Fold this protein.
Amino acid sequence: MKQHQRTAYAVGLKNPLTWLSALLALAALAGFVARAFWFRQPDTDCWTLWIRDLLPALAALYFVWQLLLHGRDRVYRLTLPFWVLCLSFVYTAWGNLNWYWALALTLAALAGAYLMRRCLTGTMPDWPVILLAGAWICGICLFRHMHVVTVYRDPAELPPDWLGWAPEILLLAAYLPLCFAMKKLDDGKYHPTWGDRPDGRRIRSLDPISVVGTYIMPERNQANVYFQDKLEITALEKYIRAKRAAGYEKFSMTEALLAAYVRTVSKFPGANRFISGEKIFSRGEDLQFCMTVKKDMATDASETIIKLHLNPGDSVDTVYRKFHDALDEAKKSMELDSSFDGVAALIGMIPGIILKFTIWFLKLLDYFGLLPRFLLEVSPFHGSIFFTSMGSLGIPAVYHHLYNFGNLPIFLAFGRKYRVNELADDGSAVSRKYMDYTINVDERIVDGFYYATMIKFFHKLLLHPERLDDPEMEINEDIP
């Protein structure tokens, strides 16, 4: 597939060059801080202080943080400190040099930032980074010499020589051992790059109408499509009884539906997409299932949310085990005890007007893919599908809305069982048992034909549930 042609890099913590690169960046951080707070000129304006010293200091800290914590799969993020240095160079040049020198430095900075991005994102060989960083070290020495001569007329005003060039040189030099520490990832898997989110990769090969449609209908509730169907469950109930006899004592309709959905997503991976920030993403092999669980069948009983991670290749046995492990964990106590309950209780303590701003800020972070991983993990609004069982309540399936907050694209509800007297082919009357179910989908993630084909496959699986035990599962990858 096209997305696998990009080279991905990883940096290991066992490599001494990784730690050398981090130490050089920390030394640069110390130099920027010293120059900003102890050796700056009295007439330095706020903009100059921020762009020349404080932002590069934060960039050096960011370099160390990303290198040590995310170097195994997100080396591409280390381009950001280089961009900040380029901004600092350009700002200083236009403030102190002649226009032709400033223009030349701006063009050089843009070219350098572009090449660094291409190298660290794996779209060109990594060896130019070494030449690029070396050339920049020489160039910044020349630039700093010109800057010092231009700004400080009186030799007595000159700052310590090493502070005039050392922080930038040290941060640039941190890229040299990084280049030798980077190792290509040849596992054939997709690895994140710019534009991806922590919970999914961006799909970049969509047709124009799919790209534009997310901006025409930016809210999830503007793109709801409801589907209702009924399922003849004679074979499914027989399958459930066979599973219980085989040792799965708590096997029920929920596990059967969930196992069938896993099989469906394996064949139709487009169902595991979501939309965030008007962009379409794929969760890949991470199928996140959410469900509300009532800890006791009483009107005043508390409820909580379970969330489990399934894989497209999970068998019925694996689905059963994962589901009941999560269910048992949620029902350990009558009190709220899940991770979601704890976070919800904490947020609920915030006063109303501040809570409204907090939710707005969380939505803003989610829009740009900056919501922390731990919040994505506990949030029931971020997932692949939400199940709700009306059958356990003795009522028909409801049409449940999708949430505008988060990125949950599919909601499935199934209702109580009921009997219908029908005519057989020979004209005799027969009694058949049915169960209604409804599906609410976000129509923007795939087209109607895709949804129709997927739902028909899901329905046929439930009519012939013995196919769920077939070890030969068709597993397809989503488009690039």
Remarks:
- The radius of gyration is 29 Å.
- The first strand starts at residue 9 and ends at 10.
- Residues 2-184 form one domain.
